[in-house]
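ugh ok fine here u go
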Amino acid sequence: MFQKIFVIATLAIGAMAQTVKTGITDGATPPAIQPGAPIGAVAPSQLERINLYNGHLSVVVPILSIGGRGEAGYTISVRVSTQPWTAQMSSTAVYDNSGTPTQVTGFNHNGSYSNAELRPYQSNYSPGIVYRKRAARTPYLCANAGAHRYDKTLSHIVFEEPDGTQHELYDGTVVQTGAGCNPSATIVTRGPRFQATDGSGITYTADATFTDSPNPLDPHENATSGVLLFPNGTRYTVVDGKITEIKDRNGNRTKIEYFSNGLDVHDSQDRITTVRTDVYESSEYVDLIRYKGRMALTTRFA
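structure:
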């Protein structure tokens, strides 16, 4: 279902490349199910990308360019091809010779969860999101813990662009093994510095280090806070998964304020663009974008 977007312009006065990891325990999203434009995607035009691994088409429509001085800006866009998804897990037990369950291959969470429920830091029309992702395998039923625990875990950082393209960043530490059932196992500390493995040169410095949770019922994605740095010197300040400031190498800044129904963007010349979602107007719900332009203009997107 397409959602209508109103854009209102009002009169303003004045003017380290690394090898891509492919191991089963590195936690990387396989190319066949990566969203957005992963490495190798074909771009027939500026609006669309085709993932050659699975044939999926990703369409992103640019709406408004946030500019000002320098490179501290981004393009507000709409993902037309976004697909809502749900997650469901069921359990299958493995028993030893005495009939005691020792391993399960999944867990029943008694329900399904939407994308918005699992990602409260997701924000449309923003420069992207940054979150911590946990990969895990081999969940055992631990006698000493009285609950299921993963035997192997590995967490890393993901920067997801507005079109869904994911950049996965690792800190170089090893897979954590045996911490779920063995109290004396070595606990691996992650961070604070992470580096992309896709050749983009992006690095991330987290505000604090963290460890992997072996509990399967804990979220596999969590918001993070820190600084994302690009090779051209642009820095993204990240607070609880949301990008709140863009700063270029010359000190120009764009700031983003988030609300429950949208966001405000202050560019480097202190012009304000407001975005409000699910606004009831003309007998329907729309997303409304207001910004200052050189002439009074109303443009409608459907």
